[in-house]
Structures are given as C-alpha cells and as structure tokens.
Amino acid sequence: MGLMAAGALVALVCLFVIVGRLSSGTQTGVGTVVYGLCLASAGLGVELARRGRTRLAMMAIILAAAGASLADVLP
Known about the structure:
Layout: H1 2-24, H2 30-50, H3 54-70
C-alpha cells in the first residue's frame, strides 16, 4: 500500500510539471519528455505494487523519482 502511494505521488508531481510546462508556453524540450517517461514509470510502479511485485515496483518508482529530479538539468 505504501509503494502505491509513493508511486502515485511521483506520478502526480510529474503530471503537474508536464501540465505547467505545456501551459506556460516556455521551451518544451527534452526535459518534458523525460518527465513523461517518469510519469509512465511511476504508473508502472503503481500497477506492479498492486499486483504484488514489490521489488520491481520499488525499482520503477526509484527510477521515476531519480529521472524526475534530473530532468530539470536537461534543456
């Protein structure tokens, strides 16, 4: 249950950043694509946690959080 909540939180943050970047009219470059991939990875982590694959879910959520934190460095 905790992994599902963590994955949903990461996915929600990525979704808000994507919507904010697209609605502000600023440059939508590689960073926005990375946030989209992180959103997909977090969603995958939630689904894996729901099915009981906790190790894979934890890896997907950590990958999503790490990618989201590094996406701001990209143009």
